[in-house]
Every structure is written in C-alpha cells, then in structure tokens.
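User: structure tokens for this one?
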Amino acid sequence: MTGGASGSDDEQPGGGAPGQPGARAPGYPPSGTPPSPPPGVPAGVAEGTWPPPGAPVDVAADEQPPRTPRDGATWLLFGALGFLAGQVLSSIALTVVAAVNGHSSDVSKLVASAVPPAWVVISGLVGLWAGFVGAVVVTSRARGTGSIRRDMRFEVRGWDLLIGPAVGLAGQLVLLPLLYVPLEHAIPDLGKKLSQPAKHLTGGFPGGDLAVIAFLTVVVVPVIEETFFRGLILRGLVRALARTGPVLGPALAVVADGVVFGLAHFEPLELLGLGAFGVVLAVMAYRFGRLGPCIFAHATFNLVAILSVAYPTGMLR
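Assistant:
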C-alpha cells in the first residue's frame, strides 16, 4: 500500500509553496487534496496546471503513486537496490552457465573479449533484467497500487507506433551524429569505437544466435528498461524533486534520468549519446504520461544499432 501525505512541508504536493499545485504531465500529478477546480473542470484537475494543454485528461491519475516526495525517494531506493541486485544476479548467472559449459576458468576472459559467446551475453542480460523486474514488482507492491501497468504507466496507444519509431530513427541518424561531430578530430577512429558495444552484443554470432540476441535487444530490452528507467526511476525522481518547483523539478528529473540511463550502460565513450537519448525518452514519458512511445523509440534505436553492425558483415544475408 502507498503511504498517505503527511502534514509536514516535505510531503506537500507540487513544487511550489505548501498547498499550491505544481505543473504536472499526465501520470505525474500532485498528491493530497487538490484545490477546488474551476467550473467545468473535473475534480482533482486545476485549470492551467495538470494536465498540460492538449494532453488527455486522466482524472484517476491524480491518485497515482508515488504520492509524496518521501514515496518518490523510496521508489528511487528500490530502483538502486534492484540495479545492484541485477549486477549480482548477472554475475551469478554467468558463473552457473559457465560451469555448465565447462568454461569456469576463463569466464572473465570471455566476458572481456570483443565478441563474447552468445551464452555470455544472454546470461548477463537475464541476470540484470531479474534485478530490474524485481525492483519494479517490489516497488509496485510496497509503495504503489500493486498494478505495474497502472503504477508505471505501462500503456500503448496507436499513435505510439508512429511517434516512437520516428524518435528512435532521429536519435540514431540525427542526434548521435550531431553530438559526436565535435569529437571526430579529437578521438581517432571514433566511429569504430562507438560501434564496439553493438559488436560486443551482436557481432560474430551465427544466424540463430544473432536472431535470439536481436529479439532480446529489440523486443525485450525496451520493455524492461523503459519500465525500469522511465517508469520507476523517472516517476520517483519527479516526485522526489517536486519541491524544487513545477518547472525546475521535472527538468531536473528528466536530465537526471537520462544521466542515470547513460551511466548504467558502463560505456564511457557512449555516455554522451546514451545520456542524451535517455533525456529524450524521459521527456516523452513525462509529456505523454505513458511508456508506449518510449518503448517503440527505444526498440527502433536498438534495431538501427544492430543493423549497422550486422549488414556490413553479411550476417543478415
């Protein structure tokens, strides 16, 4: 069950003074008892605040968790614990599978290789995902409604099939090239170095293994990571930073979410691009109030990365 709002200042809804509503996008509404709405505006929705102009009104979302800054901080704590648990579970999964395959003595070498075996990649991903999913489930049950779909705003609409892929393509074909142009002369072979993580994930695999990795990367990864980063983490950040103001709070939240997303991949050279695209995904989640557009954008972004590695080597032929 979620905790209710207390009478202390740090539990007041919104980002302004205690008792005043702050601006919110759908799915990130203020908590507590809202002021009386103007005539014709549904209860719980103050005109000119939440939702923003043109956004669909979801009155039920007014009671969406996390309801207080303290709850938001708790969501972030669960997320951090889930991430750490994922790292541990990933190591355990790799150790177990390596023992089964007879590679216990050289598992570290295989993980660090430029193109590790498919079982290394899959084992590591499954362990990490277990931590992410576990954090989402525990958070929903302990500090939410118990419904992951409702708490994380896991919703897909028809327009998401157009919006998401367009943003994903723009991220790979426009955003990343623009970000890395200033670094081309400073870092030798920048393009080759930037493509190395994708080759580490998909390069050198035979057709069957590549198909499995591609499915996991394009279908499973976006669903799990968006639920974790743009569901649990972003919603926790927005609520935890509510006291900083109705504009500054969400701005800090989406930037912090993008930075966390980039850092979580442990790729220093790719941090700039992944962090920037993470901010784009966070803005989408905040603005639309659901994960659908982000999932399809993330899937398209990953698909383009895989194709850029697979086609030059002839793997898809």
